[in-house]
Amino acid sequence: MIIMSPALSNPYSLLPTPYSLLPRTSDLTQLRTAIELKTKAFTLLI
User: Fold this and answer.
1) Distances (CA, A) of 27 to 32, 39, 43
2) How many Å apart are CA 8 and CA 22, to the nearest integer?
């Protein structure tokens, strides 16, 4: 059974787009939550 997190289901969150490099707090929080979801998903798979 493959568990897909919302961060992994969004391909744009995996790409280093210029939008993710903008110094906006909303993008930074979304990027931080995406990284946290990815790490949680990987720890669940281990």
Assistant:
1) 8, 18, 24
2) 21
Domain ranges across the chain: 6-45
**DSSP-derived secondary structure letter, 2:** P
Residue 1 is predicted with a pLDDT of 47
Q: Are 29 and 35 in contact (CB under 8 A)?
A: no
What predicted TM-score, i.e. pTM, was given to this entire model?
0.38
- Please report where in the chains the tokens 């931080």 appear, as a residue: 32
Consecutive H or E run containing 9: helix 6-9
Question: With 50 as the cut, is the pLDDT of residue 23 above it?
Answer: yes
